[in-house]
Write a structure and sequence with these properties.
Number of strands: 21
Number of helices: 23
Structural class: alpha/beta
Shape: globular
Helix content: 25-40%
CATH topology of one domain: TIM Barrel
Strand content: 15-25%
CATH class of one domain: Alpha Beta
C-alpha cells in the first residue's frame, strides 16, 4: 500500500467546498453525504425528486440533550432503506432492459450485522422487494425465522448444519417458507436425507461449488482452488448420484457460489459468473431441475472514493454490476435453451455499510511543535547547542538536507553526553527543542523543493500531531486494526475553516495498535489527516463513516471498553428527524460481568475493605460512605471518557 502525504490548499481563504474536496466526501459518500455551505457534514435522503439534508452535528446535539454522550454509533434508517431499494431496483432495471425471463431475490447475510434493529429494518422495508436473509448458524436461522414475515423471501442456510439446524429448516419448509440448505460438504447430505425422511418433509437443497476463478482484493482467498468453502467438481457429482439414489434429485434447485468479498474489479465478477454458468448447465445436463443461481456476495463499497481496482475501492457502479451478471447468464444459457434462473445475491457490506457511522469527540492533542525558543543561548552553553542554534538560523531551500543531517547529528551527540553524565537535563531539553524547530522549518520549505529525499519526504508524518479520540478501535473499528481496512474519517463541523494540522488519531485504549494512521484523500491513501486546532471549552467531533458492515459484531473488550451508545434516526421529508431507537452503551458493571466478575460481590468486597479502613482509623464513616457511593456510581457509569 503506497501512502501519500497529506497536502493542503495554499490559500488565504477556505470554503466548505475546499473541505468537501479535501476529505473526498462526494467520492466515497455515494451521494448520501456532503458538506453544507455552513461547513457541516450532512446526510442526504431522497424522497422522490426532493432531497433532504440534515447536518450530522444537529443529530449530535439531539443526542446530548437525551443524555447520550460520545462515543456513539449513529444509524440512519433511511440509508439502509435506500440501499435495499437501489440494489433491488438496479437488478430489476437490468432484467427489464436485457429481456431476462426471471426475477431477482436479494438475501442479506446476517453475519455482516446481526444487530436486532438492523435485521428488523431489513425485514420490514425489504418485504416490498421480497428481500430475504442468509443464515450461517442455528442462532442466525432462528433470527431469520422470527423476523421474515414474507414467504416469497428466501432463507439461505450456509455453514455446517447439524440435525437440529436441519430440523428447524425443514419445519420452515413445511410452513411454506423458501428455506434452502446449501451443501458445504458431502457429509451434510446424509443428515438432510435422514431428517427429511423421518419428518416427511422434502427439503430445498442447494450446492456450493468451488470456483477456480480468482478475484482481486483483500478477500481473494474466498475464491480459487484453495477456498475453504465449496464442493469440488468430483464431490458435486457424488452429491448428484446420492440424490438420484434417494430419488430426490428434484430437490436440488439452487446453485451457490461465492466469488469473494469486496471485489474491486468488475472483470472478476463477469469471469466468475461465467464459470458458475458452466456448472449450472452441467447440473441441468445431469437431470437437476435447479432454477436458482446464488452468486453470493462481492458487491464492493468504495471506501477510498478512487473508483479503481484498489482493495478498498471499486471500478464499477451498481447498475454495471447488475447488467454484467444478467448479461453473462443470458449469453451462456440462451444458446443451450436453458430457462433463466432466479438470480440471488447476498450483498451484505454494500447494503449496510453506508447506514452507520462512529461519532466521537477529541479529548486532547499531543503536538510536535517546538516550544518558544530563546533568542540567544544562555552563557556557558555547550558547543553542540551553539551548533544547533546556528543550524536553525541558516535553514534555506538550498540546504535542507544538510541542515537535516546536522540537526540530527548534534541532537544525538547531546543525548550521548547526557547518557554519560556530561550534559544536563536542560541541555538535552534545549537540544531536542532546537532540533524540532529545525525540522519544522525544513517541512515548511519542502513545497518549494523539486526533488525530495525519502528522509525529508517522511518529515510531515514524523511531525504530525496525535489527536486522542474518545473511542476504542478494538471495540468499534476492529477491521482497521485486524486487516488494515480503510474507512473515511473527517470532522463533521468547522468545515468552512481551513484545517491546518497534520494528524493521526489514537484511541483511549493505551495500546500501540489503537490508532488510525491511514486515511482516504484526494490523491489516494495518506499517512496523516488534516484536522483543525482544538479550541478551549469547545468539543471537536469526528466521524468514521461506512462502518455498518462487521464492525459491531467483531468488536472486543480491549481494556474493558464496552459497546458504545447506538442511536437510530429516521429522517422525514419535511426535514425533521426522529430518534427512532436509543440503546445505551455498556456500563462498567456490564463489561465486568462479561469477563465473569459479579458486580454485587465486588461492591461487597470493596465495602469490607472500606470498613476495615474505618476500624483502623484511616478514614471516617462519612468518608467511607462517600467512597462506597463513588464505587457504586462508577460501576453504573459509561466505560468511555465522560466530561
Amino acid at each position: 500500500m503506497q501512502l501519500k502525504k497529506s497536502q493542503n490548499k495554499a490559500s488565504d481563504s477556505w470554503s466548505a467546498e475546499d473541505s468537501a474536496n479535501l476529505y473526498g466526501i462526494r467520492e466515497w459518500g455515494a451521494d448520501y453525504f456532503d458538506v453544507s455551505k455552513q461547513g457541516e457534514a450532512v446526510v442526504k435522503v431522497n424522497f422522490g425528486d426532493n432531497t433532504v439534508t440534515i447536518p450530522i452535528i444537529d443529530i449530535v446535539e439531539g443526542m446530548r440533550e437525551r443524555g447520550l454522550e460520545m462515543p456513539a454509533i449513529l444509524r440512519i434508517e433511511n440509508l439502509l432503506d435506500q440501499r435495499i431499494k437501489q440494489i433491488n431496483e438496479a437488478f430489476a432495471r437490468a432484467i427489464y432492459d436485457q429481456g431476462y425471463q426471471n426475477h431477482y431475490r436479494g438475501v442479506f447475510p446476517i453475519k455482516v450485522n446481526q444487530q436486532c434493529h438492523v435485521i428488523e429494518e431489513i425485514a420490514a422495508y425489504g418485504k416490498h422487494y421480497h428481500h430475504g436473509l442468509e443464515a450461517g448458524s442455528k442462532a442466525e436461522l432462528i433470527i431469520a425465522l422470527s423476523q421474515l414475515q414474507d414467504h416469497e423471501s428466501l432463507i439461505v442456510c450456509n455453514g455446517y448444519k447439524d440435525e437440529e439446524f436441519i430440523e428447524l429448516g425443514l419445519y420452515a419448509r413445511q410452513m411454506g417458507i423458501q428455506c434452502f440448505f446449501v451443501l458445504e460438504t458431502t457429509a451434510e447430505l446424509p443428515i438432510i436425507l435422514e431428517r427429511s425422511k423421518a419428518l416427511g418433509i422434502e427439503p430445498l437443497i442447494g450446492v456450493r461449488i468451488k470456483l477456480a476463478s480468482m478475484v482481486e482484493g483483500h478477500w481473494n482467498a474466498d475464491s480459487g482452488d484453495r477456498s475453504i468453502f465449496g464442493l469440488s467438481t468430483s464431490a458435486l457429482l457424488t452429491v448428484v448420484e446420492q440424490l438420484k439414489a434417494a430419488n430426490m434429485l428434484h430437490c436440488l434447485q439452487l446453485l451457490h457460489c461465492h466469488l469473494g468479498s469486496q471485489i474491486p474489479n468488475i472483470r472478476n465478477i463477469r469471469t466468475g459468473v461465467l464459470e458458475a454458468c458452466r456448472f449450472y448447465t452441467g447440473l441441468i445436463a445431469e437431470g437437476a431441475p435447479l432454477g436458482y443461481m446464488d452468486l453470493g456476495g462481492g458487491l464492493a463499497v468504495d471506501y477510498e472514493g478512487s473508483q479503481t481496482t484498489n482493495t478498498h475501492s471499486m471500478n464499477y457502479q451498481l447498475d454495471e454490476y447488475c447488467i454484467n451478471i444478467v448479461e453473462t447468464i443470458q449469453e451462456n444459457l440462451d444458446p443451450l435453451g436453458i430457462a433463466h434462473p432466479v438470480i440471488v445475491s447476498e450483498s451484505g457490506r454494500a447494503l449496510v455499510a453506508y447506514s452507520s457511522m462512529l461519532l466521537f469527540n477529541v479529548l486532547d492533542v499531543r503536538d510536535h511543535k517546538a516550544p518558544p525558543l530563546p533568542e540567544s543561548l544562555p552563557e556557558g552553553s555547550i558547543d553542540l547547542l551553539k551548533n544547533l542554534f546556528n543550524v536553525l538560523q541558516s535553514v534555506n531551500v538550498k540546504n535542507l538536507q544538510e541542515c537535516y543531517n546536522d540537526s540530527l547529528y548534534y541532537r544525538d551527540e547531546v543525548r550521548d553526553l547526557f547518557h554519560r553524565g556530561h550534559a544536563t537535563l536542560h541541555d538535552r531539553a534545549l537540544a531536542e527543542d532546537f532540533n524540532l524547530a529545525i525540522l519544522e522549518r525544513i517541512t515548511q520549505l519542502l513545497p518549494q523543493v523539486t526533488r525530495i529525499s525519502p528522509e525529508l519526504e517522511n518529515l510531515p508524518e514524523l511531525l504530525s500531531d496525535i489527536y486522542y479520540g474518545n473511542f476504542s478501535l478494538f471495540q468499534s473499528l476492529p477491521d482497521i486494526w485486524a486487516i488494515d481496512q480503510v474507512m473515511p474519517v473527517m470532522p463533521i463541523h468547522r468545515l468552512n475553516e481551513e484545517p491546518t494540522r497534520d494528524a493521526i488519531i489514537a484511541d483511549i485504549t493505551c495500546d500501540c495498535d489503537g490508532k488510525i494512521d491511514v486515511f482516504t484523500g484526494p490523491e489516494g491513501l495518506q499517512s496523516t489527516l488534516k484536522l483543525h486546532a482544538l479550541r478551549d471549552n469547545e468539543e471537536y467531533y469526528l466521524s468514521v463513516f461506512l462502518i455498518g458492515a462487521y464492525q459491531e459484531t467483531l468488536g472486543d473488550l480491549h481494556n474493558l471498553f464496552g459497546d458504545t451508545h447506538v442511536v437510530s434516526v429516521h429522517i422525514s421529508e419535511d426535514g425533521s428527524f426522529d430518534f427512532a431507537r436509543e440503546f445505551h452503551g455498556d456500563s462498567i458493571a456490564d463489561v465486568l460481568s462479561y469477563v465473569e466478575y459479579d458486580p454485587k460481590v465486588m461492591q461487597e468486597q470493596f465495602r469490607r475493605i472500606a470498613e476495615t479502613a474505618v476500624r483502623e482509623g484511616k478514614i471516617s464513616v462519612a468518608m467511607r460512605q462517600q467512597m462506597i457511593k463513588a464505587f457504586r456510581d462508577s460501576l453504573n457509569g459509561y466505560t468511555y471518557f465522560e466530561r
